[in-house]
User: Fold this.
Amino acid sequence: MSCALVGCLAGAGLSGWFSDRFGRKRLLIAAAVLFVIASVGTGSAMSLSSFILFRITGGIGIGLASNLSPVYIAEITPADYRGRFVSINQLTIVIGILAAQLINWRIAEPVPAGATIEEIMLSWNGQTGWRWMFYACAFPAGLFFLLMWVVPESPRWLARDPSNHDKVHALFTRMGGKNFADRELASVRETLRTVAIKVDYRQLREPGIKRLLVIGVIIAVFQQWCGINVIFNYAQEIFSNAGYSVSDILFNIVITGSVNLVFTFVGMFAVDKFGRKVLMLLGAGGLAAIYAVLGSMYFFNMQGLPLLIMVVTAIACYAMSLAPVTWVVLSEIFPNRMRGIAMSVATFALWSACFILTYTFPMLNKWFKASGTFWLYGGICLLGFWFILKKLPETKGKSLEEIEHELTGNWNI
Assistant:
């Protein structure tokens, strides 16, 4: 589970400098290529070392795409719709998860209740089925690669070079008409007026930028340490501990994916209506309460449907709040001239937190049992609630340039 996250860290770390230098579009095309290679390579792996190598390759693609997709969407979308459109990034992730769960469920042959690990390994699932589960990823990856060629480059990245301003105006006109284009281009020019095009990581130490970077990193880490990805990554163990058989587990995973999809739609339409901060507080507070109940259920050995209901409730709470809104906030709060690099740092922190979460869960589960582990995540959610309440600014309905001006205190910082 953790080896792909090593690739995510590498992809996230590289994406900032490369995307600010070469643009968003080229890096997203590169991510698509890596997805195809990883899909075919992992499915055809004949040794554990080659399997891990291709898992890491796919992780690099994830690191690139997870950083650049929300940045790109934020940079092309008008302020009134930006929260909803950046949330489309999370929606497509959720659709991909559900599609994978459905495909895996249909590829897998039924497993008799009580089957041993050895019997599963020698079955069609253990010998061949898992390969087709990885091969299936090549189809959406290939479609992503083809469609990225017809997508324009980000106008806000192009605007860093004054010779591109006519092209930028044309792109903004396509998005919202001539008046919108005039207004947006004027704002972009003002934020870049006295700023050199070339940026580096040393500029992240500037006082105004450093404060935003700290907020971004903490929000990114909290999205992972809230604990919900443990439910996705270790769903089999969670449902097994609740008394379900292997075949039941596959079906229950499809249920969790369906709930994830439905409530992502709720978050998409709520983020521009109620704002980012309200939904983030709802997610942090809601998960803290759910984990308190979930931990108690494990403590008293409650199994079956009640446990499944609480797991689904946690996923619903996360899907409509922290899952999409974190990416919206991260794509908005950093200045235009260094959005790629700052977003890269925040995304690197997010995948680092994901790696630590995934790697440590088996140990925490052994030390504290499932009950204590979920209570621990509940405590982290309470800390996240406090930080969001005290430190997170509201960005609803503001252009990226307005947000930059308000959060840095100077148009030209």
Q: What stands out?
A: Residues 3-408 form a domain with the Growth Hormone; Chain: A; fold (CATH 1.20.1250.20). The radius of gyration is 22 Å.
